[in-house]
Write a structure and sequence with these properties.
The structure is a single chain. The protein has 104 residues and is an alpha+beta fold. The protein is built from 1 helix and 4 strands, in the order αββββ. It has a two-stranded antiparallel ribbon. A two-stranded antiparallel sheet has the order 3-4. A hairpin with a 5-residue loop joins strand 3 and strand 4. The longest helix is centred in the first third of the chain and has 33 residues. The N and C termini lie far apart (70 Å). 10% of the residues are buried. This is Putative til domain protein.
Length: 104
C-alpha cells in the first residue's frame, strides 16, 4: 500500500510538471507569434547581447549569450538613446564610438 501511494505521488508530480511545461511552452509560442518589433527592427529567436547602439555601432567584444525572442535593430541601424533604431549614419557624431578600425 505504501509503495502504491508513493508511485501515485510520483505520477502526480510527473503530471504536474508535464502540465506546467505545456503551459510554459504554449505561452512562449503565443509570445513569439504575437511579438511585433518596431520600425527598422527584426525579431530574433535567439538574439545577441551586443546590439549596435549609437554609442557602440560596431561591437567588437561580445558574449555568446542567447536572448530569446528579442527585437534587434536591422543591419545598418543602431539603437538610439531614445530606444528607436536609426541608420548608423544618423547617429550624433559625439555619440558614436567608431570601432571599425579594430574589426578585421
Amino acid at each position: 500500500f505504501v509503495l502504491v501511494t508513493f508511485t501515485l505521488s510520483k505520477m502526480n508530480l510527473f503530471l504536474l510538471v508535464l502540465i506546467l511545461a505545456a503551459i510554459f511552452n504554449s505561452s512562449l509560442c503565443y509570445t513569439m507569434v504575437m511579438r511585433r518589433c518596431g520600425q527598422n527592427e527584426e525579431l530574433k529567436n535567439c538574439g545577441s547581447n551586443c546590439e549596435s547602439t549609437c554609442e557602440n555601432p560596431y561591437p567588437v567584444v561580445c558574449s555568446y549569450q542567447c536572448i530569446l525572442n528579442v527585437c534587434e535593430c536591422a543591419k545598418g541601424y543602431a539603437r538610439h538613446f531614445n530606444g528607436r533604431c536609426i541608420p548608423i549614419s544618423q547617429c550624433d557624431n559625439n555619440q558614436v564610438n567608431d570601432h571599425r578600425q579594430y574589426v578585421k
